[in-house]
Design brief:
By secondary structure, the protein is mainly beta. Helices cover 10% and strands 44% of the residues. It folds into two domains: 135 residues, STM4215-like (2-Layer Sandwich), CATH 3.30.2000.10; 167 residues, Jelly Rolls.
Length: 319
């Protein structure tokens, strides 16, 4: 049975994954989101901090039997910075993120924007082979930084893998690091945008790795000779697809192999993984106010938000 995620964890991840603050000099601000409370030492390495805490949670029944219930939460979100302009931009980002995700706060999009070889979360590899290699196979080669940049966005700037060995395919492997506890996950959607060409015909085949069965499963295919989006949706036995390190693995290959004369070429424009957890399904801003700390030097510029959330639960029984 799946677990319900703590709403604080959901909001921390939502803000952390979507926060995008550009400083006055054009560089990207380093912002950390965490559970309460504020840590002054973090300002040695970060431009700002966001803390999230649960102020109150109320459980109400929404039918006479009490079987269907709604949990209504009140959350504290504090924005902290030693720079007043950075604080202002962080406040605007909190407003933007919550408003844009108010009906899906429990949904997280994982993709490769900003990822390179130095990153230890998501990874991408390519290879050529007559078989579908396991994620741990030594034949995989990680993408170079300039190749990673080609899969950052859906912008027609594609990474390609060409392989010209008879009866062998061009392959790519994508690793996504999932932040949620695997038992709270209720849905995973993997999507690949691209296409494949080969002498016997166009097409891409994608599969997801089942680490329990040690096999690639849930094959989906495209047949186009231009960009198309192919997806795999998982809603059952999800812990079989999130390994012990929290990784989900996606394989893409040309549907047809090379003939040794004409190469098999796999093109990727964009790839992503969307994870939905059991937890809050609505989030909105109630109010916010400035609460600067001017009794310390340097000043700490702080804004406190109050957010409301809710989730629904069927606890069983008879109406």
């Amino acid at each position: 049975m799946s677990e319900v995620e703590n709403p604080v964890d959901t909001v921390v991840r939502l803000l952390s994954k979507n926060m995008w603050v550009v400083k006055e000099d054009g560089s990207l601000a380093s912002i950390i989101a965490s559970k309460e409370w504020y840590d002054r030492e973090l300002f040695k390495n970060y431009d700002g901090q966001i803390t999230v805490g649960l102020a109150e949670s109320r459980d109400t029944k929404i039918d006479m039997s009490g079987r269907l219930r709604r949990r209504v939460g009140s959350l504290r979100v504090n924005v902290w910075s030693q720079d007043i302009l950075t604080r202002q931009k962080m406040v605007e980002e909190v407003n933007r993120i919550v408003r844009q995700n108010r009906n899906k706060p429990n949904e997280t999009l994982y993709y490769f924007r900003g990822i390179g070889q130095a990153t230890e979360t998501h990874k991408a590899y390519h290879a050529g082979s007559a078989e579908e290699l396991t994620p741990q196979h030594a034949s995989w080669t990680e993408l170079a930084n300039v190749e990673y940049e080609k899969i950052w966005y859906s912008d027609d700037n594609r990474h390609s893998k060409s392989h010209n060995v008879n009866s062998e395919y061009a392959l790519m492997l994508f690793r996504f690091k999932i932040d949620s506890r695997e038992k709270t996950v209720k849905k995973i959607v993997l999507a690949f945008e691209g296409y494949g060409t080969a002498p016997a015909g166009n097409g891409v085949t994608i599969k997801v790795w089942n680490h329990v069965a040690q096999a690639w499963q849930n094959a989906q295919q495209g047949t186009g000779g231009a960009d198309e989006t192919i997806s795999i949706t998982l809603t059952s036995n999800l812990t079989d697809y999130i390994d012990d390190s929290g990784y989900v693995w996606l394989l893409a290959r040309t549907t047809n192999p090379s003939d040794g004369i004409t190469p098999a070429i796999l093109y990727c424009d964009y790839v992503c993984c969307t994870v939905t957890v059991n937890g809050i399904t609505y989030l909105d801003i109630v109010s916010y106010r400035d609460a600067d700390r001017v009794e310390v030097k340097p000043f700490i510029f702080r804004t406190e938000f109050t957010l409301k959330s809710w989730s629904f639960e069927d606890i069983g029984g008879v109406f």
